[in-house]
Q: What sequence folds into this?
């Protein structure tokens, strides 16, 4: 799987130091990695889970587990890409185990200063969050994060065909919701 | 800009300021989280179609290092638990915690004289969104009378063969896995998977399961570990977690309308016994009916099986001989089924 989704290259020398430090359990190094990647991972988790609370839990779990997980990081390809894939998997695990659907729509859960600024964005955001989890996760990974169908299928444990079917359904539903204003 | 282009530029919230503090505080307090591995994991649902023999293959793939030495407790268990999402949900907890209590009374009044040998072959299919259906796996379970240490036992052997997704003509055959079961109590006493490059053994003595894994080849590894099995020492339990592990037990359960009972399942203990995959399975009869599968038409009890909060299976068990005839796992966008293709001796 490539890091094309993040558009970022491999880790810098400083970041490598932080990775080595975090792997050894150094909290300052872990904090540095969080400052470098935390916001992007939070946005990814938010897109996948649909709620700030779940996104917060996902990022919390990712960084709490990171020092041990770094023992498995093979330093091939982009560190940011690896981190995103791990975060996506944690978010997807959370989706799978979530027993109840979100009852509160996005705009009601976001602080006012973090809501989309224009009506179109708000409508789009609301429509995305109204999608079933299985459709939204494919849409977010493919259309928002830019993963290929092959990468989406790996992340979700589905076939490429299923990924295409779900994306098609998600797009149709999204288009219908936006056109009807529902 | 179209709404599709808008997708990539949608604003998103920023993480709360205190999140980093929470993370560092959790680390300082000793909280540890097992993250999924880099290598693609098989969906837990799909993995339910696999036998645990495949687990041992993954163990081989997920360990590395030179010289024969014990597996590192923390790292190895993370690798293993991350790569094997079909362990019971309790074993997949982010933090170690005791298994949830059984929902029902332990199964009892087993009709052990009803147990019988034979060979059963199943076809396993999965369907996403009721659109894409795959029927690539076949699973065979054989039950025969045998002796172990001079004592009569049931020998239960299982093997799965499945076609690879990218090449239907290329098949994966899992190593044969064998379990010796005490015929009086239906308690497994010995389990072994002897695969290419690894040897996995579990011995059950009293209430203790003693697990041994030896991996040979370029990166040899091993572990020896023990865990206690909850419940009475003469209560039956199920090794691993696959629908078919219950096959012999189902032959002897006193199923009837409204029957219910719980039994423990014992998965991988792993290097850290505190994270052993031991959890109860809760069974209850929810109905009955006549169903048709490739092997014939059967009058069945419909048994619902629950493990944890999110795994529900329906099993169809023939009323006359206790055969597992059909299984079905349903989730909102996913369905996995297995149906009896053939049986020896043939259906009465």
A:
């Amino acid at each position: 799987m490539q890091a094309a989704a993040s558009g970022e290259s491999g880790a810098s020398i400083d970041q490598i130091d932080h990775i080595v430090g975090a792997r050894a359990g150094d909290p300052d190094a872990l904090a540095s990695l969080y400052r470098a990647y935390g916001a992007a991972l939070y946005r990814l988790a938010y897109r996948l889970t649909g709620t700030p609370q779940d996104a917060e839990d996902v990022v919390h779990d990712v960084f709490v587990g990171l020092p041990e997980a770094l023992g498995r990081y093979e330093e091939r390809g982009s560190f940011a890409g690896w981190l995103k894939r791990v975060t996506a998997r944690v978010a997807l695990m959370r989706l799978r185990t979530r027993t109840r659907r979100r009852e509160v729509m996005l705009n009601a859960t976001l602080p006012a200063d973090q809501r989309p600024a224009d009506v179109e964005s708000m409508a789009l955001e609301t429509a995305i969050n109204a999608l079933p989890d299985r459709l939204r996760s494919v849409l977010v990974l493919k259309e928002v994060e830019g993963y290929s169908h092959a990468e989406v299928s790996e992340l979700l444990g589905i076939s490429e065909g299923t990924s295409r079917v779900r994306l098609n359904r998600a797009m149709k539903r999204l288009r219908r919701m936006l056109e009807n204003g529902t | 800009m179209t709404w599709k282009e808008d997708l990539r530029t949608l604003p998103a919230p920023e993480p709360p300021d205190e999140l980093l503090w929470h993370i560092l505080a959790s680390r300082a307090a000793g909280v540890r989280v097992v993250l999924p591995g880099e290598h693609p994991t098989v969906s837990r649902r799909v993995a339910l179609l696999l036998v645990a023999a495949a687990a041992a293959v993954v163990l081989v793939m997920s360990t590395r290092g030179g010289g024969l030495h014990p597996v590192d407790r923390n790292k190895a268990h993370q690798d293993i638990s991350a790569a094997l999402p079909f362990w019971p949900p309790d074993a997949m907890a982010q933090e170690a915690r005791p298994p949830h209590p059984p929902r029902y009374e332990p199964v009892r009044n087993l009709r052990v004289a009803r147990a019988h040998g034979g060979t059963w072959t199943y076809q396993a299919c999965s369907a996403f969104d009721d659109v894409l259906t795959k029927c690539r796996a076949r699973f065979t379970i054989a039950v025969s009378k045998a002796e172990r240490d001079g004592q009569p036992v049931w020998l239960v052997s299982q093997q799965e063969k499945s076609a690879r997704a990218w090449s239907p003509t290329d098949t994966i055959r899992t190593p044969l896995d064998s379990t010796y079961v005490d015929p009086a109590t239906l308690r497994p006493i010995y389990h072994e998977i002897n695969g290419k490059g690894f040897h996995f053994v579990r011995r059950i003595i009293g209430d203790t399961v003693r697990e041994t894994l030896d991996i040979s080849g370029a990166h040899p590894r091993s572990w020896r570990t023990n865990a206690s099995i909850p419940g009475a020492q003469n209560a039956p339990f199920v090794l691993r977690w696959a629908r078919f592990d219950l096959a012999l037990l189902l032959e002897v359960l006193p199923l009837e309308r409204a029957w219910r009972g719980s039994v423990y399942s014992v998965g991988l203990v792993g290097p850290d016994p505190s994270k052993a995959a031991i959890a109860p399975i809760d069974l209850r009869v929810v109905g009955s009916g006549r169903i048709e599968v490739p092997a014939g038409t059967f009058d069945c009890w419909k048994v619902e099986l629950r493990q944890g909060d999110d795994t529900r299976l329906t099993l169809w068990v023939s009323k006359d001989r206790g055969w597992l005839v059909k299984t079905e796992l349903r989730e909102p966008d996913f369905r996995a089924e297995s149906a009896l293709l053939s049986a020896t001796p043939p259906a009465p």
